[in-house]
């Protein structure tokens, strides 16, 4: 892109008020084509002749701004006329909101900068460029305040007065600007309220029946100066009152000052994570509000849904839906931990834990390609990968299982979609991460020392700690082995000689076995089995089964152990127990939150405790996708749809369903790059009936029996031994 445009900002500081930039121009020739390229230090919304340009919400998206800032290009041919007016709002967005971290502190000092360039090709072959420069004007807009955490204040009575000058300044250089790389963020779904009710404490609350990420649109008849003031929450407390203390310092408020008459409006430069909305003020009083006045708009990255799970158990179906909503709510350009409290950051560990499920539910190749490019851009010289990407805490020490996202995510995306491009792009970063561990550990071939999150939120955590009891050094060394193993596979897929890393891997495994001959927790066992580090994996899987049974058929795992727990069991003759954990409804379990009315995945197994009280408010998100990783076990083991390493992207598929007598039927389908693959099983008397559809060659394994088939639909039966017993 050849930028003629100059970065502009309001000459005078407007404080919290969001500036609106403007230029007017006349075109007196026929336009063949026109495109508008825009980016900003914050988030922008552009309007040409009063019409919104494009559908991108919160453009230009969130990247590692110090290195990469996306710009978008819109075809605006149809929006042009003779006399034209282009207006662009620039809000703080992720760039300048009060988010955490020393990097953010610096970004926040930058101005509300705008860069825009309209390129016009006339029918007669002439061209013209209209670009931001000192001749543009600015005004204080009706958006009086806006912040990612704190919400938006809009005064619809404000009519912009074009009395502010703009100033050209030295913004990000052209080299830092990149064309849109990820998926656009869009308004994807509209949800009507389930009910509007008066809580026991008298507050008026709208319940949308589903936790989403996005905003609320209000439609009201009002007098000039009337106010709509809303607060957002995920939960009601045990008495049925509005509860949002778990948002911590995030004010998450929406205040709208009405103009005269009928009006429809929603926030435009921020978002909220919520299911409930409390009406603090409303024209004529809160009690005048009606359900018809509200609708929720779910905003997330424009990824295509690819995977579907259904079964005979309604609670499990709700869990599947919650996993999908967890992904929608946290895939807003960056895979975030949560969308509501004063965090909403691209935690690398969470992304790594969930990436397999993410690639099944939706086509996320483009989404991850962009995020991983940010990860690489943020990676330190010495190879250290931050705890969050975009990295706002550049100086923080890395944590095992978090930094490993650098290797696990590209490999998983490659397996899901089969394009080596992601490996080629990320290979230097993957290698740097493994080399970082090699050069920073205190003991050769193991990762000893360092500060790690460990098995974050593991239930075997000592009192007062968020960290499960599994040993840091064991977890870190296990991931060192796993990342090295995946790096070797990636390198070999790219035709590289990986013999040096092969040797390294062998040495890590030997050292691991020597240093960790036995395992003490469920997570330690799950890692040792799933990463094949234990000398005798079957014995350790048996030990894992005993640990679970001794605990009362309860899982104790946190972020690190949970994604592998069921795999470690089902891969070693404990399918039955894996299903027992999946189907368990009492705390702790995946279905426990469902029994408590969850509509997304919770951060804690007991976000709401059995007595109805909340976990402490400082760390209790109800939309934290990590434990939703279990969906990948349902696709890959219960329904049995698996990638085959030598045939990435489902060039060939393995379908090895594992039914369970406690379900009457289960079905999974997946839209791969080659077409649809589906697998379903159901009980028929004393038989399991399997129906499989594959668009590619497949290796089908039914009840231990293997066969190779071509694309097509197939029916199999096996004796339901457990049913007979
Ligand atoms: C986040 C997590 C994250 C963690 C690091 C939390 O505050 O919400 O999901 O991975 O910090 O342990």
Query: Are there runs of 5+ residues with pLDDT below 50, and where?
Result: none
**What is the CA–CA distance across the termini?**
70 Å
What can be said about the biggest beta sheet? 10 strands, mixed
Q: What is the number of helices? A: 16
**Unique ligands:** beta-D-glucopyranose
Question: What do the pLDDT scores average to?
Answer: 96
The percentage helix is 25-40%
Instruction: Give me the Rg, rounded.
Output: 27 Å
Morphology: globular
- Class from secondary-structure proportions: alpha+beta
Top CATH class of the largest domain: Mainly Alpha
Instruction: Give the strand content.
Output: 25-35%
CATH level-3 fold name of the largest domain:
Glycosyltransferase
Query: What CATH architecture of the largest domain do you see?
Result: Alpha/alpha barrel
Question: In total, how many beta strands?
Answer: 37
């Amino acid at each position: 892109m050849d930028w003629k445009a100059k970065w502009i900002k309001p000459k005078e500081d407007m404080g919290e008020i969001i500036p609106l930039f403007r230029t007017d121009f006349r075109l007196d020739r026929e336009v063949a084509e026109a495109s508008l390229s825009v980016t900003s230090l914050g988030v922008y919304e552009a309007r040409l002749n009063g019409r919104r340009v494009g559908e991108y919400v919160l453009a230009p998206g969130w990247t590692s701004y110090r290195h990469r800032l996306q710009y978008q290009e819109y075809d605006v041919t149809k929006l042009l006329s003779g006399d034209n007016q282009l207006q662009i709002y620039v809000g703080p967005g992720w760039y300048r909101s009060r988010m955490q971290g020393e990097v953010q502190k610096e970004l926040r000092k930058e101005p509300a900068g705008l860069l825009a360039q309209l390129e016009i090709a006339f029918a007669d072959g002439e061209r013209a460029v209209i670009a931001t420069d000192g001749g543009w004007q600015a005004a204080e807009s009706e958006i009086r305040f806006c912040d990612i955490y704190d919400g938006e204040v809009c005064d619809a009575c404000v009519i912009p007065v074009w009395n502010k000058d703009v100033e050209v300044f030295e913004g990000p250089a052209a080299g830092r600007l990149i064309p849109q790389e990820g998926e656009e963020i869009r308004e994807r779904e509209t949800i009507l309220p389930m009910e509007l009710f008066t809580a026991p404490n008298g507050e008026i609350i709208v319940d949308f029946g589903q936790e989403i990420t996005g905003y609320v649109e209000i439609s009201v008849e009002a007098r000039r100066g009337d106010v709509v003031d809303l607060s957002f929450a995920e939960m009601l407390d045990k008495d049925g009152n509005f509860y949002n203390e778990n948002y911590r310092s995030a004010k998450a408020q929406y205040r709208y000052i009405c103009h005269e008459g009928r009006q429809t409006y929603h926030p435009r430069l921020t978002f909220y994570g919520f299911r409930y909305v409390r009406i603090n003020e409303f024209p004529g009083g809160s009690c005048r509000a009606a359900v018809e006045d509200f609708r929720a708009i779910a905003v997330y990255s424009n990824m295509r849904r690819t995977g579907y799970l259904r079964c005979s158990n309604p609670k499990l179906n709700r869990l599947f839906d919650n996993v999908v909503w967890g992904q929608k709510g946290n895939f807003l350009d960056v895979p975030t931990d949560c969308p509501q409290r004063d965090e909403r950051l691209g935690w690398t560990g969470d992304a790594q834990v969930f990436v397999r499920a993410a690639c099944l539910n939706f086509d996320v190749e483009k989404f991850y390609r962009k995020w991983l490019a940010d990860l690489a851009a943020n990676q330190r010289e010495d190879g250290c990968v931050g705890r969050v990407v975009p990295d706002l805490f550049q100086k923080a020490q890395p944590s095992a299982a978090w930094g490993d996202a650098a290797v696990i995510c590209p490999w998983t995306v490659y397996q899901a979609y089969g394009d080596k491009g992601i490996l080629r792009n990320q290979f230097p970063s993957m290698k740097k991460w493994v080399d970082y561990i090699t050069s920073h550990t205190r003991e050769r071939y193991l990762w000893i020392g360092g500060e790690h999150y460990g098995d974050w939120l593991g239930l075997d955590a000592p009192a007062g700690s968020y960290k499960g009891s599994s040993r840091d050094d064991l977890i870190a060394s296990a991931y060192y082995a796993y990342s090295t193993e995946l790096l070797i596979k990636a390198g070999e897929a790219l035709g590289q000689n990986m013999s040096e890393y092969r040797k390294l891997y062998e040495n890590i495994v030997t050292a691991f076995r020597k240093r960790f001959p036995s395992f003490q927790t469920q997570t330690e066992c799950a890692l040792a089995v799933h990463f094949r580090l234990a000398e005798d994996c079957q014995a350790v899987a048996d030990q894992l089964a005993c640990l679970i049974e001794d605990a009362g058929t309860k899982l104790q795992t946190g972020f690190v152990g949970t994604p592998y727990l069921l795999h470690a069991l089902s891969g070693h003759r404990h399918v039955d127990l894996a299903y027992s954990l999946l189907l368990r409804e009492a705390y702790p379990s995946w279905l426990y939150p469902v029994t408590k009315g969850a509509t997304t995945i919770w951060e804690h197994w007991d976000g709401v405790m059995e007595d109805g009280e909340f976990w402490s408010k400082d760390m209790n998100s109800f939309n934290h996708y990590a434990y939703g990783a279990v969906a990948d076990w349902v696709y890959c083991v219960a329904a049995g749809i698996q990638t085959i390493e030598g045939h990435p992207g489902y060039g060939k598929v393995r379908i090895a369903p594992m039914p369970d007598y406690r379900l009457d039927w289960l079905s999974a389908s997946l839209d791969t790059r080659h077409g649809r693959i589906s697998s379903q099983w159901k009980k028929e008397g004393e038989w399991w009936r399997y129906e499989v559809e594959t668009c590619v060659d497949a290796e089908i394994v039914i009840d231990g029996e293997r066969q190779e088939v071509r694309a097509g639909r197939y029916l199999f039966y096996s004796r339901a031994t457990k049913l007979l017993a």
